[in-house]
Every structure is written in C-alpha cells, then in structure tokens.
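Deliverable D2.4 — example input (structure tokens):
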C-alpha cells in the first residue's frame, strides 16, 4: 500500500521530540536554583520591555543578550558575577516600584561592568540643597540592605541641571551635586555601618545630562543621583566612573 510507512516517520519525529523534552527537564532539574532564577528573569515580558525602553550604559546590549550572541554550540554558562547582576537588577526594580516615584524619575540599567540605578534628585533631596528627604532616606535604607546582602561596591554619582545654582550653601551646582552624592554615602556608612572602602563619590555638575535641558521636565531628569553597583573585582579594574 503506497504511503503505508509514512506514519513511521511521524512517529520517529514524535519520539525524538519527546526525548528532547525529557532531556531538557533533566537539565533544568540539575541546574542550581540561582541559575533558574536568572533564566526565569530572562524569559519574562518585563525584562524585554525594559530592554526596549530602559537606558543602556554602553552600546552592545545587556549581558544576557551578549551571552546569547556569543554562545557557541548552545553552551551557555552563567557566571556568579552575572547571577549577582541579574538579581540586583530585579531587586532594584522592585525597590523603585515599591516607592511612590513617578515612572520617569527613576530607572535601572545594566552593562558588562555592573548595575545602575538612577533617581531624580527631586525625589531624594529638599529643593536646591543636599538635605535628604524622608523618601530619600527610605530609598537609601534599601540600598544598605543590598550592599550587605550581595557584598557589592557602590559608586554614587551626583548630577545637577544648569538652573541649579547651589547658593547660598554652595558656590555652584558642581559642589551641589558633590554634596548630594556625599550625603548619600555618609548615610550609607552611618546607617548600615558599611565600610567607606566599598563606596565612592563622583560629581559631574551639569556636564552629563541624560536629555536636553530644553524643558522643566527634561531638567528634572538631568538633576539626579546614580548608584552604580559593582562586584569588588570589577571595581578594582574599572575606570568607568
């Protein structure tokens, strides 16, 4: 009978697919829990929405995308540093979502060096000052918990917009941006008893805007504080700040 053996081909394809499925289940069962968390984060819609809309620190995309592009023969190895980075990214997003911050006043991004969280100065300080607001202290309490939990170093960067004078307390917005970053570091040291060796302060004044300063909304985005989380070995060899 013509075509009588076609079912055997279909059956063989089915058995092959079934074997591949069970092999995948076995591999996932053998994987460490940390790896499963990282992989689950990669396949969520929120992750890809963030990649499409969130800022990137450097061209080349996220570590997960880079790993996917560079993987050979389906050999995808996730290092301890990358696991820490992905978990930090997720926890920082959760922290920002838990606070009543407008969506455009904060954000999280990652590159091959570390994880960056930026928060508008309006959400953390009193106007034209370096005095932390209650909301700013609450956010820093969450940062303290992350530093202690994951043993990371943090570079705190202060930014201002051109309209901020810093006066009467500071001669320019450069000193104002420095004072804001320093206030954050002082709080982290005192509140969490964190070693100052794990912290750095960098001030940029209005020299590194995220967007143009054409509108009040743009200027609000540019006056910000950035928290860049690094693993110790990355910070030791990095000139990124």
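Example output (designed residues):
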């Amino acid at each position: 009978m013509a075509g009588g053996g076609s079912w055997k081909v279909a059956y063989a394809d089915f058995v092959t697919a079934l074997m591949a499925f069970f092999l995948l289940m076995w591999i996932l069962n053998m994987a460490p829990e940390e790896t499963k968390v990282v992989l689950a984060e990669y396949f969520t819609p929120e992750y890809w929405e963030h990649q499409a809309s969130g800022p990137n620190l450097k061209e080349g995309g996220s570590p997960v995308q880079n790993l996917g592009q560079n993987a050979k023969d389906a050999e995808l190895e996730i290092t301890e540093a990358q696991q820490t980075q992905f978990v930090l990214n997720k926890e920082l997003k959760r922290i920002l979502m838990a606070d009543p911050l407008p969506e455009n006043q904060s954000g999280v991004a990652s590159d091959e060096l570390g994880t960056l969280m930026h928060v508008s100065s309006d959400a953390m300080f009193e106007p034209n000052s370096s005095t932390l607001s209650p909301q700013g202290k609450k956010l820093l309490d969450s940062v303290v918990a992350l530093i202690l939990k994951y043993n990371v170093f943090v570079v705190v960067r202060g930014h201002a917009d051109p309209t901020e004078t810093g006066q009467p307390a500071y001669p320019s917005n450069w000193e104002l941006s420095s004072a804001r970053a320093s206030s954050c570091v002082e709080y982290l040291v005192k509140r969490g008893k964190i070693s100052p060796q794990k912290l750095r302060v960098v001030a940029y004044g209005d020299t590194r805007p995220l967007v143009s300063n054409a509108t009040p909304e743009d200027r609000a985005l540019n006056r910000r504080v950035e928290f860049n989380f690094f693993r110790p070995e990355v910070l030791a060899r990095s000139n990124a700040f």
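The beta strands are 106-110, 115-120, 153-158, 199-203, 224-230.
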